[in-house]
Design goal:
The chain has 194 residues and is mostly helical. It has two domains: 17-78, Rna Polymerase Sigma Factor, Chain: A, CATH 1.10.1740; 105-183, Winged helix-like DNA-binding domain superfamily/Winged helix DNA-binding domain (Arc Repressor Mutant, subunit A, Orthogonal Bundle), CATH 1.10.10. It is built from nine helices and no strands. Belongs to the sigma-70 factor family. ECF subfamily.
Length: 194
């Protein structure tokens, strides 16, 4: 009985993805150094290449040029990193990131909910007038035409609506707008330290 037919030539070693990958490492590292010009970045590039290749090994066709496949992965990764780096702002001391401090969002949401409740409690004519002027940006003449009333009537309704909203929201001055004093103090301290 003859031996079963195999595609492996007499004395040839069967393909091993791991073995081929390990054999390509010195060449990959040299290529990475030539691209990045820094040994630490080159090592990161090689590591990323190995991880990607290992994760995609089922897509590699045995019998094709694994070295070329790996070098292509490394080159693509290098240029992807360069594109990402081009979109990033250098900020070694964290100054830019520190200036991105913002007031907590939840207070604004709570204030908006309070405003909606107060707005809903206004008489219909006042609510309509303040929405036309304040939210929709119409001139008094345009709002009067839309509402079918005199300009003076719109002005009066808007004025009464503003007064009532201030009362309902307990707004006494400019300091009552925006973040509370504790939040403002914390964010202002983070800016002052820069």
């Amino acid at each position: 009985m003859s031996a079963p037919h195999t595609n492996i030539a007499e004395g040839a070693v069967p393909f091993s993805f791991k073995r081929e990958l390990l054999a390509a490492l010195p060449g990959l590292r040299a290529f990475a150094v030539s691209l990045s010009r820094r040994h630490d970045r080159a090592d990161d590039l090689v590591q990323e290449t190995v991880m990607k290749a290992w994760g995609k090994q089922e897509s590699f066709q045995p019998g094709t040029n694994m070295r070329a496949w790996l070098f292509t992965i490394l080159r693509n990764e290098f240029y992807s990193q360069m594109r990402r780096k081009g979109r990033e702002l250098p900020d070694p001391d964290g100054v830019f990131a520190g200036n991105l401090a913002t007031h907590p969002e939840q207070y604004g949401k709570l204030d908006m909910e309070d405003f909606k409740v107060a707005l809903d409690s206004l008489p219909d004519d006042q609510r309509e007038a303040i929405i036309l002027i304040g939210a929709s940006g119409f001139a008094y003449e345009e709002a009067a035409e839309i509402a079918g009333v005199a300009v003076g009537t719109i002005k009066s309704r808007v004025n009464r609506a503003r007064i009532r909203l201030r009362e309902l929201l307990e707004v006494n001055g400019e300091s009552d707008y925006g973040p509370d004093s504790t939040s403002a103090l914390l964010v202002n301290k983070s800016f002052a330290g820069r």
